[in-house]
Protein 1
Amino acid sequence: MMDGHPVVIAPIEGTPAARAGILPGDLIVGIEGRDTFGLTLESVVNELRGEPGTSVRITMDRRGVLANWDIVIVREVIKIKSVAVAEELFPGVGYISMRQTRFSEDTSAEMEAALEQLFARKISGLIIDLRGNPGGLLTQATEVADLFLPRGAPIVSVRERSGRNHETRVSQRRPPAERIPLVVLIDGGSASAAEIVAGAMQDNDRGLVVGTTSFGKGSVQTIFDLHEDEQTALKLTTALYFTPSGRSIHRESLRTAPDPGAQLTFGDVRLPSAQLMALLLGAPDAETAEDRLRARFDLDPDVARQVLITPLSQLVGGARTEADKIDTALAEIYLTNQGRQVYGGGGITPDVVVEADLPPALIRDLYRYRVFFDFVIEYVGTEGGLDKLAVDDEILQAFTEFIPRSAAAKARLNQSGTELRGLRTLASHSGWAPTVLSLIDSLEVAIEQQADNINLTAAMEPYIRAGLEREFSLRVDGRRASLLVDLETDPQVMEAVSLLRNPERFLQHLRGDGPQDN
């Protein structure tokens, strides 16, 4: 929300809203003549949704640029694509992003179309980004692997826990991308179908896996109805996924029930992490997952979408602990087709380990509270704001002055106020001396006086520039451009590019001769 009205974060490419010219930051100020001021996001979404083919009149406001104009949108069924980006990232290096999407019914067709598009540009190497991809349909995982592996190559084995049945799925076709050098990116949010694809590429020595160890969700679950209670069912793990070398994808630690009290905070909403993980992993697609989140936890749409883009590793208790990481010195060793060592223990361990760049805590707060986005929307609405979009010292200074009146600053002040009130209550109930209460009052005044002083260090400047450049790209050129800007400073992507541009080093790792950690 912005100024009491719902704000467009980014219209999905190819949808009626995008074709109508709606931009990130535009305010929805009216629907069919009804003012949206003060309405909940859920109410707004319900007003906008309707039968495909019907129309809805929306009044928009582009702050400082164009006020209160009407557009008529004809509703359509919106399909979320699995392939978010397919671009020549650098000369000769193709990039296909399935980052934070899912393996759905059309994934392999989208991937094949993306390959055709990139091959037409004569690429000599390819990056497939599966970071944050929670999986989806097994059939689509095997069909995507089919596009890269020679006919007859093993992709995944499904073994029943009883040991009675064992099915191995193999490549069925002549692949269009059998020989191009390939790097697959994964992280702690890559799970299930994404791990099947990464493991198949690794064990068949078809390409290198770069990033951090994947989530380790390699179980097949069957739902049994309990007939005596129509609203109750039993979900039972009946089989496990194994890579071609024989590694179980499933992480043993996931068989232990997570802490039922662990919770995650999204804005001012706290949700149980274990229930979130179970719901997300059980949903066939993003739309179903969003609907289930909203129904189960009574969430506004924006909170549900924030949950959907949260890495799975955070949903099971935050960043992966040292105990969860695979120690390759102790892990069981398996061999790829060409005799290269890979490691068991759950999940897929990369051939080249590259940690993601973690911004400082203050920068993460600015992202969490959408400060970069809000600043850019305000800035481009000023006179001449669209004429100067390069992030220079003037824009950095304007951003620094914007932060104290941002949502992040207010949230930090509210948090400190809440904690001080708790401390004051404790002091009062415990009978502490009046001088203690006086000190707490003095501390509260000092914090309020410091509310405008947010210390941005020199080390934060590259992160601030990157955040602003991303949001300017989103506002002017759309989501695809914003995603590509992000990749320019992504250490995992840069390592993948480096490997593809250095064939000798690429082959060294593919033979198992290169150092694992970067």
Protein 2
Amino acid sequence: MLQPQEAQILAPVLNFFPTPKPPNKTLSFHRISALVITFFAYASFHASRKPSSIVKSVLGPSKSAQVSLEETGWAPFNGPDGTHRLGELDLAFLTSYALGMYFAGHVGDRIDLRLFLVFGMMGSGLLTVVFGFGYWFSVHLLVYYIAVQILCGLFQSIGWPCVVSVVGNWFGKEKRGLIMGLWNSHTSVGNIVGSVVAAAVLEFGWGWSFVLPGLLLIFVGVFVFLFLVVRPEDLGFEAPAKEVEMHEEKAENEEVGLLGVESSDSLEAIGFLQAWRLPGVAPFAFCLFFSKLVAYTFLYWLPFYLRHTGVAGKQLSHKTAGILSIIFDFGGVLGGILAGLISDLIEARAVTSVAFLLLSIPSLILYRAYGSLSMVSNIALMFLSGLLVNAPYSLITTAVAADLGTQDSIKGNSRALATVTAIIDGTGSVGAALGPLLAGYISTRGWNSVFLMLIGSILLAALLLICVAKIEIQQKLNEGKWVWNGMTSQ
């Protein structure tokens, strides 16, 4: 066992209470602790992002005659261009988030990850609360809400590189599979918790929908400050083999794929244009652009859509619409698991992605046409849509990024892996920022137009992978096995 690092870098609880330290607790105990703590940390980040989608139906204009004068929206979002401005709010957050991600990873490499993560959590939580204060202080300035969203996006960008770096420190390239699959569900769990909390208190004033998730993030930040141990070396344990490939295991959500651990090898970093020319990178990157565009449009606009379309001829309350929207996230969890499982069994990522993309087109048509007939049809079709829409998005940001970043031509070059992953996830994040903005503008022409945009995006995503899928099928045929029986030809 190594000697522990300086005591001041340890979490305060471990400094004052020696019981959790070795030899009282094993390496396995602390690995599980790191997984659990980072899981809740990133889930709380996502929970604090959900209020903006839940309160859209309250802030924006209403076209329903059943709405009272007290519920006609909140200036500056309740005018004829209200949905445009709500879309601009999403754009402000997602753009600053994507840009901040590039810098956050490099900063996290150079300072204490625990303190940097806590800094991001505290800043994000505080700014989420500040956004909610606009309700009690009757703030009706668009620049106020835009500025808060920009700053909040920058603080939120700190979360992902930090939690992935911590998990990478503890596990290296080990322990993939089920454990990491469960850990990757933090995005959906956070979305669900944020939706439920924000919707539950919406009737007391939309400000509470921001304040409570913000306070939750701050509370979890305190927990992280007290308990998180960044590296096994800090407790005297041997460090696992540090391989940046750990960073490819991200599911979600989310976001630009910037890795928080720098390479220790001596290979020269691959050029940006050279990385684009690697087989499969460009098709999957642009496919993720359109796939993430669709997924994030639902993430930010589904509660608003449910509120304004109604179910079984009845208009849903803001609270009911917000809670009902989590069904889409539940479907996404199952979709991500199924896509990963199927692609492993048939050994064909592009074929799996194309299949889910094409199946999602009729599911969206059915949801738009029949989702409002009854609550049962709405829930069933929403779950199916979430499963099919999120499956390829989840697969590309995890297994596909790992495959492309470790192909033979660049194998062992962790800097090349970082560049490839950044290209794929970064391109997807541009789509994630564009989708909600377009939905805000197009929705003024009717929801059929929005669904046409989503279906068109999915079709383009599938077409971008057709050639790659054909290559995979041909390879299977050349190997003497069909795509669907790859599971039996090990």
Protein 3
Amino acid sequence: MDSVTIFFIVGCLLTAAMVYVVVQVKHFGEAKTMSDQLLKAQTEASTNKKKLLGYTHYADCLEASKLVLMEQMKAPVAKVVREYVHVAQLPKDEFKLKAEATVIATYTVEFGFGVDTSPSGFELTAAANGMGLKMSRPTLVGEPVVKAVSHRVVSSAELVEEKAVMAQIQAKFAELARRYGVAMSTEPAVQALCKLKALESLRDALARQPGVRHLPGIFVDFK
């Protein structure tokens, strides 16, 4: 076999080997790319799954959120301050006056309202469109805080022992304030304040729970 033939055969073998190596490298590169893409897709799927679970995880946190809510809703849930005017007619004989007298007294009252914070006081339910909260209706809690602001005496004669007379009149304010407070607990404005407090407290309670990424719509109502 002459040298030309030998070189030709060797050249063919080298070319075939190079083609094989190139094909192998190409296949390895494609396989690595596909593997990287698959790993990326799996990672993204896992991340998206965690995110999706985070959007619905609140439904698994009802009891834990309820405990936080019970703590945050301790009385008073809402405070309301109102001003009142009290008009008192003073009989001459009773107060030993020289003339009829009328006292116009102005005072403010701070009322506190609360709801039942026992375990049975709140009902939490998860729904497809959000979360529902039912709670007891507000009631007056504690004694209203009464503060005298001013008073004026309308009479043709000077009021003797004015301080004693005013003390007797102001002694009635506490009982009046309690009556006002009981009636106020049914007012829409007071109930709305308590609902708002419950809504804010529940949202805060849910936000504290690990894994919750999305706060649902919350619907608050009374039992």
